[in-house]
């Protein structure tokens, strides 16, 4: 490395502003998840005092993140987040039950909590989504991208996802920022709920599809566009490419004209 490049690199380091540390954000998420699902924790809580101390510690960490981000009324934002933790927990428990009901291979709900990448990804989304709604910058994306890196499941924290969401297998799933998903939806690996275009001027409009209640989307399906709606209780088959709305109770499958 030449001297000029080293000087420019050093300047970037020396001028670096305070910012969130990725590994600390990941730890915060995992410790929050362990608070809600103690079976994930490495250590057992020995007393109520320890339990309350654990909660206070997480609150202190979140307060620190918000101060680093220089958010006004950071204390108020933190209080609003923790006020939603019971709702997050309830939604995640319903997600677990949906995954258990939807996967014949699942032997118990504990197995889902401990081993299913879909549970890990939707947990990150549920926590990040509250922070996103509170207009906290960067932190929600750090939480969901940590889950993305671990599971291969990419859920933007701005998506709107209803109750009892089931992800089966999960690898390669993409759910875009303005996606709307209803209750009791099940999706398989490789599904993309994306935008028809990626023009920057479309940043403030709905770019991603709406998936209504009870829809099942099989592996490899691609559904694009903010005006595209998959009607309730429809089934979308594997590898289907959809850019137009589908009426409720529909079945859409990929087929070829190949003859033998």
Write the layout of secondary structure elements.
Layout (H helix, E strand, L loop, with lengths): L2 H12 L7 H15 L11 H21 L5 H10 L1 H18 L6 H7 L1 H17 L5 H13 L2 E2 L4 E2 L4 E3 L5 E2 L4 E2 L4 E3 L3 E3 L15 E2 L4 E2 L4 E3 L4 E2 L4 E2 L4 E2 L8 E2 L8
Parallel strand pairs: 1-4, 2-5, 3-6, 4-7, 5-8, 6-9, 7-10, 8-11, 9-12, 10-13, 12-14
Describe the structure.
The structure is a single chain. The chain is built from eight helices and 14 strands. It is of the alpha/beta class and 260 residues long. The chain folds into two domains: 19-153, serine acetyltransferase, domain 1, CATH 1.10.3130; 159-254, Hexapeptide repeat proteins (UDP N-Acetylglucosamine Acyltransferase, domain 1, 3 Solenoid). The mean pLDDT is 94. Helices cover 43% and strands 12% of the residues. The longest helix is centred in the N-terminal third of the chain and has 21 residues, at 48-68. The radius of gyration is 21 Å and the shape is globular. It has helices at residues 3-14, 22-36, 48-68, 74-83, 85-102, 109-115, 117-133, 139-151; strands at 154-155, 160-161, 166-168, 174-175, 180-181, 186-188, 192-194, 210-211, 216-217, 222-224, 229-230, 235-236, 241-242, 251-252. The strands form three sheets. A five-stranded parallel β-sheet has the order 1-4-7-10-13.
């Amino acid at each position: 490395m030449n001297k000029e490049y080293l000087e420019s690199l050093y300047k970037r380091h020396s001028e670096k502003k305070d910012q969130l540390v990725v590994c600390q954000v990941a730890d915060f998420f995992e410790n929050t998840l362990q608070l809600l699902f103690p079976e994930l924790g490495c250590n057992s809580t020995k007393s109520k005092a320890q339990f309350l101390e654990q909660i206070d510690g997480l609150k202190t960490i979140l307060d620190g993140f918000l101060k680093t981000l220089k958010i006004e009324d950071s204390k108020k934002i933190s209080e609003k987040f923790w006020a939603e933790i019971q709702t997050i927990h309830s939604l995640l428990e319903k997600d677990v039950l949906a995954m258990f009901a939807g996967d014949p291979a699942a032997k118990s709900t504990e197995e889902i909590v401990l081993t299913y990448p879909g549970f890990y990804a939707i947990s990150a989304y549920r926590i990040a989504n509250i922070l996103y709604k509170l207009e906290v910058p960067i932190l929600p994306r750090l939480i969901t991208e940590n889950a993305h890196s671990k599971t291969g499941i990419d859920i933007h924290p701005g998506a709107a996802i209803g109750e009892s969401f089931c992800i089966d297998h999960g690898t390669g799933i993409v759910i875009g920022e303005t996606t709307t998903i209803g209750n009791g939806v099940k999706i398989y690996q490789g599904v993309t709920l994306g935008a028809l275009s990626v023009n920057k001027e479309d940043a403030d409009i709905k770019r991603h599809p709406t998936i209504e209640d009870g829809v099942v989307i099989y592996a490899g399906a691609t559904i694009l566009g903010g005006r595209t709606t998959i009607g309730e209780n429809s089934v979308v088959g594997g590898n289907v490419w959809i850019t137009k709305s589908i009426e409720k109770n529909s079945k859409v499958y990929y087929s070829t004209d190949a003859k033998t």
